[in-house]
Structure formats: structure tokens, C-alpha cells
């Protein structure tokens, strides 16, 4: 073999090595992307917002979640700030009334949110699934006894956290405490709250045509004034909310709507003469209503998160937008009959 041939073969070997190195690098990048996509539950390379399922970019994950206890008494409606919430829980508290837990993205700009009310154990359980801030005004004795054990940053208006709230002197106590996005940003910065965990996401999918007609349905809480009805609007591709046989309104005057309504059946019992306890970390029946129709299955608490599965253990589907999670303690309280 001549010296020139050896040189050519050496050059060829170097070229082949470089090509293999580049291929390996590209393969590594592809695998890394796939892993990231798996964690974020993306669809066809699309990243989705962990709270509302809308399409986002990598830069849009620079936020933390906020959970706020919101009043739902007759006299305080319409509440402030609900329209901008990504997720809203509704569950019974004492006196057979319901209360709300609203979950927000810290990047939202909202001048007034409330009235803010007190903490309960089971609302704290749901708030912990998101991390970030939990904002409230005091709480039940059972809640306050264990609140520091939870994995969120506790911001209580009673005490040092008062600086993150204000009272409206024109409204009666205790229905007059409010907060804002400026306050939660201030709290988040001073308390060094971490950005959202990217794995915290439900199975949001792109809306698709279906042969199913999404049904109207109602929820019977113990007081008739808190009976909720959700009526599907084909024009909006969303459910419209009524409560106590009246339209349930945002403070903007618009009727409340939701792209998804999750009805979660949770065991509940009284733990004293007033306060309830709910079993939030086991499993039970669940129903999901959205433009895809009606889905049924089981909710399960897995790795610190409530998730929803069908009979084949496939995750039920949500569409992008706002989600209401309705908590009931008996499947018979979900009804499909309405008064004429």
C-alpha cells in the first residue's frame, strides 16, 4: 500500500468518524427531546400549559401556581377574578354551603381576587398538588394544626401575611378580604417560590369532532340554593353555569363558562359539629364533560397528583381552557333531569 493511499484511507476514516459522531449527537438530541416531551405530555411535539392545556413554548414555563380560597356565599356573588382562573374546585364546607378553590398562573394580571376565605384540610390537599402559593384567611382548627406540613408556601392573611391582602370597608366581615396578582408576585419573590413542576398536567388534547352530544347535567349539593346546573353551548363549545336556578356570573357581568367540568365523587364525613373531612388520596368514580362528550372512569391519586382513567386505564381527555372540578360525596347527586 502506497503512502498516498494510506493518507487517503486515514482521511476517509476521519470523515466516517465525524459523520458517526454527528449522527450520534443528533440521535442523542432526539432522545432528549422525546424524554422532555414525555414528561410534559406533549402531543405531536406541542407543549401544553400545565394548568389549562393551551399550546405554549419553553419560555412560557416561567411561572408558579397560586391557589386561593374563594367565598361562594349568596351575598358575595359575583366574585372577583374567577374568569382568569385556570382551574376552580367547588366543594361543601359547613352549613351545607360550597366554597371555591381557584388555581391561577402567576403571569396573569388581575387587579382584584376574592372575597378570600379560610382554609380547609381537603382544599389544602388539592392546593398541594400544584405547589406554589396557598392564599387564605385563617382556617378551621384542623387545617391550621397541620398546614405547615404541606408542600406549598402558606400565605395567611391573619398574621404576617396580612401585607398581601386588603379589606374593603364597604363590605361586611368576613366577606371583604381581597388580593391581587401584584400581591402574589410580591409574595412569590420574597418567599422565593419555585416555578411550576412541568410534570403537573392532565391529559389535554386537541379538540376533535365527535358523534356524542355533550349532555346538560346538575349537581345537588345539600342546600337547594347551591344546586349547580351546567348547560352545554354548541356556539361556545363550552358549558354555561347556573346556580340556584340563576345564571352564575363573573364580576364582568358575563355568565361563567368552562371548557371542562370534572365531577369527582369523594367520600366525606363530619369530623366535628361543623367541619368536614374528605378522602382526597384514594380513588373513586369520576365523570368528565366537555366538547368531546361525556367520559366516565375512576380518579386515582398517583405520585402526588389526582388523575383520571377509563376502564382500560387510559387517561380521560380534557380540552384546552378553564376546568371546574365539582366535588360530590354521592354519585346520585349527579343528575340529568331538569325542571321545566
From TrEMBL:
Keyword Methyltransferase: no
Membrane recorded as keyword: yes
All copies of domain DUF3048, residue ranges: 61-186, 220-325
InterPro entries with a match to the protein in the record: DUF3048_C, DUF3048_N, YerB-like_sf
Name of the protein described by the UniProt record: DUF3048 domain-containing protein
Membrane-spanning parts: 7-27
Pfam families per record: DUF3048 (PF11258), DUF3048_C (PF17479)
Species, as recorded: Candidatus Komeilibacteria bacterium CG11_big_fil_rev_8_21_14_0_20_36_20
Keywords recorded for this protein, A-Z: Membrane, Transmembrane, Transmembrane helix
Amino acid at each position: 500500500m502506497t503512502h498516498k493511499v494510506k493518507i487517503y484511507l486515514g482521511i476517509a476514516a476521519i470523515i466516517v468518524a465525524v459523520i458517526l459522531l454527528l449522527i450520534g449527537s443528533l440521535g442523542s438530541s432526539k432522545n432528549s427531546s422525546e424524554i422532555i416531551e414525555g414528561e410534559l405530555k406533549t402531543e405531536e411535539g406541542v407543549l401544553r400549559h400545565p394548568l389549562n392545556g393551551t399550546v405554549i413554548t419553553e419560555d412560557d414555563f416561567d411561572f408558579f401556581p397560586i391557589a386561593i380560597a374563594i367565598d361562594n356565599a349568596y351575598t358575595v356573588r359575583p366574585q372577583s377574578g374567577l374568569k382568569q382562573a385556570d382551574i376552580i374546585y367547588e366543594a361543601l364546607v359547613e352549613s351545607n354551603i360550597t366554597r371555591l378553590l381557584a388555581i391561577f398562573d402567576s403571569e396573569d394580571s388581575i387587579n382584584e381576587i376574592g372575597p378570600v376565605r379560610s382554609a380547609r384540610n381537603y382544599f389544602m390537599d388539592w392546593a398541594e398538588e400544584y405547589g406554589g402559593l396557598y392564599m387564605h384567611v385563617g382556617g378551621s382548627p384542623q387545617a391550621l394544626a397541620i398546614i405547615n406540613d404541606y408542600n406549598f408556601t402558606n400565605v395567611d392573611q391573619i398574621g404576617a401575611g396580612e401585607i398581601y391582602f386588603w379589606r374593603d370597608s364597604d363590605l361586611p366581615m368576613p366577606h371583604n378580604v381581597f388580593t391581587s396578582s401584584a400581591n402574589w408576585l410580591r409574595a412569590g419573590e420574597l418567599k422565593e417560590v419555585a416555578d411550576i413542576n412541568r410534570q403537573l398536567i392532565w391529559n389535554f388534547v386537541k379538540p376533535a369532532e365527535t358523534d356524542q352530544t355533550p349532555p346538560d347535567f346538575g349537581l345537588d349539593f345539600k342546600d337547594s340554593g347551591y344546586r349547580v346546573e351546567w348547560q352545554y353551548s354548541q356556539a361556545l363549545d363550552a358549558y354555561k353555569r347556573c346556580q340556584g336556578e340563576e345564571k352564575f356570573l363573573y364580576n364582568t357581568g358575563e355568565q361563567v363558562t368552562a371548557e371542562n367540568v370534572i365531577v369527582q365523587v369523594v367520600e366525606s364525613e363530619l369530623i366535628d359539629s361543623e367541619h368536614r373531612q374528605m378522602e382526597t388520596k384514594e380513588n373513586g368514580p369520576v365523570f368528565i364533560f366537555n366538547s368531546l362528550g361525556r367520559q366516565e372512569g375512576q380518579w386515582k391519586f398517583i405520585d402526588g397528583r389526582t388523575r383520571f382513567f377509563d376502564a382500560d386505564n387510559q387517561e380521560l381527555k380534557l380540552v384546552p381552557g378553564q376546568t371546574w372540578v365539582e366535588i360530590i360525596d354521592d354519585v346520585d347527586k349527579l343528575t340529568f333531569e331538569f325542571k321545566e
